[in-house]
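Narrative of accomplishments. A recurring question from our advisory board has been how the design workflow behaves on a single, concrete structure rather than in aggregate. To address it, we present the structure tokens for one chain from the evaluation set, followed by the sequence designed for it. No filtering or post-editing was applied between the two.
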């Protein structure tokens, strides 16, 4: 490989990186041009390239070429897309791990275990007289353990979904409970108007941010109470709509005033996982049974971060799993368990072999070894042009 500096065909100067076959990302012989980044310079250069027979890459074409040339597997293809779409440090970190083979290593290990058990069954069939009785009980236990490992890996899809797509969090409570103050504190800037006058917020306000590595949409809402006028009535109706559409909620009450019967009634409207928070901890003591915070001083804010991490199930997250991968892993877990049931009943080996061969096929779909053309077309067509 080499890099050369010189004048390009359209008059600009720049660098040409030359990758010989097998040395580029795709594995193909490749040239990469670097020039001054003005749109007009790049546009004129591309026009010259088109006249010489070049074309724009199809969506995902470079990743597809790398896959077809054996440079990467499908778990790494998924990881490239995650790296491009990552909106948080945690998402990018996990995507990087998968690009480096974290998930493909696990899948290879699981396939190896399935292959060993298949080989053991084959040997037992071919050399039954020499080897003696088959250890039905021992192999059944191995398969049950393997099924559990596949199921556990499939369960990583739930926290993976939260890392990718985040949570919608509705901030609800009575007027002047401190919803807008918390909204601003979590955003790190004054987005919502905060005054001592109850009922300042009349409409829902949404803003995206990151909490504990999870992308979230915060929804500041109008206070829940008996409406004083038509505008406030509309605002409260929107609060209830926001609450229905949210994933989780934070119910706030004024810690200086304490929890009251109206809070008890309003909390019943929260039909989703809800954290009850006593605000204004710097102005008075709140009840010990609730989380206490001060949006002004930052006291207790780590409790909200911890709660968001719990809601997103981050503690159990080890590798990113996509919905398609979850489906294959779940089916593989069922297939292995079916093979275990065959051996438990000491039925013909052929039945167990069929289930284990299906498991290998399903795991191969994840890495791409047994993926069909439709699956590959669907995956790469979702990519950006040039990736």
């Amino acid at each position: 490989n080499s890099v050369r500096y010189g004048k390009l065909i359209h008059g600009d100067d720049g660098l040409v990186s030359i990758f010989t076959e097998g040395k580029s990302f795709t594995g193909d012989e490749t040239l990469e041009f670097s020039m001054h980044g003005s749109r007009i310079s790049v546009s004129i250069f591309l026009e010259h390239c088109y006249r010489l027979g070049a074309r724009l890459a199809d969506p995902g074409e470079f990743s597809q070429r790398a896959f077809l040339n054996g440079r990467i597997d499908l778990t790494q293809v998924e990881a490239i897309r995650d790296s491009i779409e990552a909106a948080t440090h945690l998402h990018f970190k996990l995507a990087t791990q998968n690009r480096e083979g974290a998930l493909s290593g696990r899948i290879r290990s699981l396939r190896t275990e399935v292959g060993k058990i298949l080989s053991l069954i084959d040997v037992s069939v071919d050399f039954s007289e020499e080897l003696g009785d088959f250890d039905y009980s021992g192999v059944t236990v191995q398969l049950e353990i393997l099924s559990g490992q596949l199921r556990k890996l499939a369960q990583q899809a739930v926290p993976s979904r939260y890392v990718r797509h985040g949570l919608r969090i509705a901030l609800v409570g009575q007027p002047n409970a401190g919803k807008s103050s918390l909204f601003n504190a979590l955003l790190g800037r004054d987005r919502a108007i905060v005054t001592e006058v109850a009922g300042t917020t009349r409409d829902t306000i949404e803003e995206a941010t990151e909490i504990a590595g999870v992308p979230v949409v915060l929804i500041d809402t109008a206070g829940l109470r008996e409406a004083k006028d038509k505008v406030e009535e509309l605002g409260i109706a929107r609060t209830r709509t926001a609450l229905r559409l949210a994933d989780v909620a934070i119910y706030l009450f004024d810690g200086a005033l304490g929890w009251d019967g109206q809070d008890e009634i309003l909390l019943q409207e929260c039909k989703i996982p809800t954290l009850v928070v006593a605000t204004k901890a710097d102005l008075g003591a709140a009840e010990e049974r609730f989380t206490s915070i001060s949006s002004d001083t930052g006291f207790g804010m780590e409790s909200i971060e911890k709660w968001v991490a719990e809601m997103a199930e981050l503690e159990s997250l080890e590798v990113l799993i996509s919905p398609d991968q979850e489906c294959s892993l779940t089916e593989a877990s069922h297939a292995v368990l079916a093979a275990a049931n065959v051996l438990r009943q000491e039925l013909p080996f052929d039945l167990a072999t069929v289930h284990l061969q299906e498991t290998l096929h399903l795991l191969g779909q994840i890495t791409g070894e047994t993926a069909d053309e439709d699956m590959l077309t669907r995956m790469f067509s979702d990519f950006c042009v040039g990736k």
